[in-house]
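User: Predict structure, ligand NBY.
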Amino acid sequence: MNKNKFMESYIENLQRITLKNFKDTSDKDRYFALCDTIMELINQEWRNCKNRTRKSRKAYYFSAEFLVGRSLGNNLINLGIYDEVKEILKEIDIDFESIENFEDDAALGNGGLGRLAACFMDSAATQKLDMYGYGVRYREGLFKQKIENGFQVEEGDHWIKDGDGWSIRVESDSKIVKFRDQTVKAVPYDMPMLGFENEQVNTLRLWQAEPFEEFDFSYFNNFQYDKAVEEKNRAEDITRVLYPNDIQREGKVLRLKQQYFFCSASIQDMVAKYKQYFQNDLQFEEFSKYHVIQLNDTHPIIAIPELIRVLVDENSIDFEKAVEITKNTFAFTNHTVLQEALETWPKDIMLEVCPRCFEIIEQLNENVVKEFKKKGLSEEAIDPYRIIRFDQIRMANLAIVMSKSVNGVAKLHTQILKDDTFNNWYKLMPEKFNNKTNGITPRRWLVYSNIRLSNFITEKLGTGDWKYDLTKLKGLEKFLDDEKTLEEINQIKYENKKDLAKYILENEGISIDPNSIFDIQIKRIHEYKRQHLNLIHIINLYHELKNNPDMDFYPTTFILGGKAAPGYFRAKAIIKLANEIARVVNNDPYVNDKIKVVFVNNYRVSYGEKLFPAADISEQISTAGKEASGTGNMKFMLNGALTLGTYDGANIEIFENAGVENNYLFGAKVEELNEIYNSYNPKEFYHTNEDIKDAVDALLSGELKDNDSYMFLDIYNSLINPQGGEKADNYFVLKDFEDYKKTHEKINKEYADRLTWARKSLKNIANAGYFSSDRTILEYAKDIWKL
Ligand code: NBY
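Assistant: Predicted complex:
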């Protein structure tokens, strides 16, 4: 890059888009001008990539969510010009950080599933794989979380209200999507996905819903203005907002409309391009030779009947042939074993949205039944395999029959799919099932967000090659017994903790000590993730410290953060509890120099970038068997935190790679929980363990106030006094409490030996290479996509 040219074109852009003199421009102006300048810089490469390899096999990642976060810093890193641009701006007296903080997160996802899609985009481009992302351009991303009086309050997230610096509207590629009751236009917005220092620019194509005819003049001419506006709104409603549920599915018409909308537009797009490129020698039989579609969970499964529809109805392929083509095109990833998440759609909703797809699904269902009867299965034995049963369409079943591959996202998770969730299917078609352990992109989650550690690693290894091949971190092991290196590790962590402490003081108004242990749990709030286990442990610890002021204890800061689905009362109760504990503890001078509690407001990708680098302890405490993989656990590990975790999801693989002795494993394993499932009685733990009783009783003693919301009673009841047929302590919080507490005590002791701790930290960093999403995406490319 030519520095002078860059500066020139930056200032030119700035003045052109604002019509202001340089000195009068705002941070917002400066941010958008920088986006423009970078978009110009990559334009050529992007065009090259889009036009280069038309007749070749490509992968298409279909996902209702892409949780991209901010793009500015990451794009500069991937272009290899981060430092230079910072310098250029400094020369003209612009502070990069203030510009950077102007960017709103693109929060087009809920949590792990959406963020995984974004990491995959980064890794695919970095590995020079031709992978397209297809999704939805929600006008409102995941709600912004405010905390009022300790309660979560949701606010809209109109992330593009000031503009969108990273997309290009490709009007000419618009598609028409037909629902039973309306027809809309799908307009693609393309975001460049940059590979790391390699000139590859892939495309994330997000569809926006707009009225088919901008303004219906017949209504207008008849003075029916309202009606004209209404139609416009009804079209735009489809992509107005991301559903904020991370586990519980939403069985609403509009949700299925969103799914069908982006899947239909994407399938039409693929078919149209295929026809355009292969004009003369077009053979639809070969469609699956050039396309593989990876379905990110059940949300895009409606793409399956849609492809059949487009082939049969619009291209005169016969049905059975279309089914064959489709079966060879799709692959399906599952992200959860929680029953409440597996999507089913009632027949009447599907008829209301996409009747022709329903017909096709009925046909596919008949085929399944026929085929299995031929195999000798009885009507009853066929039941688990039916795609439609009791007028419900079971999307996972549809995906499994119609895909060539079904994968889970961590070893244990895939095993549970085979043994349990999809066991019926596994028995009949074991060859379809495979594991792809998740990963994270080291560019965003280390190179960009933890510059200190990143520079240190490059210095120690003598090269930056590890950024392309993260397994090279293994080379750090030669410093395991080098005291100077270990001290440097501690120093870097300390500096990062200071940065976070400053940020938390500014944003949460709570002062925390960077010399204390930073113990962090950040993720969506859910009972299975057991933030309440963390919280009742803090309550108990607080009481202990009050009763025992001379107790030997290493000061600890407990940091929690995450959003609750707006309709999930108990998750909201957990947030209120965290804030209430923080209020009581932080205002109690007797314990104030020992523990602090912070609930960070509005946890999101850009907040994560500040939290992961500053953690000493990574809390990964889900009930064994429930967290499919987890990816936050990997971000912590890569940044040198030690995992306090159950034997669950990818934690298991973290323990395997870094050594369980360098982390803190606790809690019951899946097998044990399965065994005691029916006989489990949490009251026994409550009555026989004083610490448990102490903490659980505090929920009702009046010491903690929920402002008459009955929220703490609800948590109490869920643990030992279940209501309305619910199972007591469904997630085994009380069962695991004692072990959790003991493990915390161990941590608290061992942290004092700062060098031994640093050694463990280094062990984790050095063995985080396996968790690069580069590794994951290459496995998809090799095993499933055959790219
Ligand atoms: O996917 C998460 C898993 O819980 C986590 O263990 C895993 O690491 C991650 C990536 O594989 N699942 C997840 O984030 N799911 C959702 O966000 C989600 C979103 C929407 C809906 C269901 C789940 N929905 O039904 O609308």
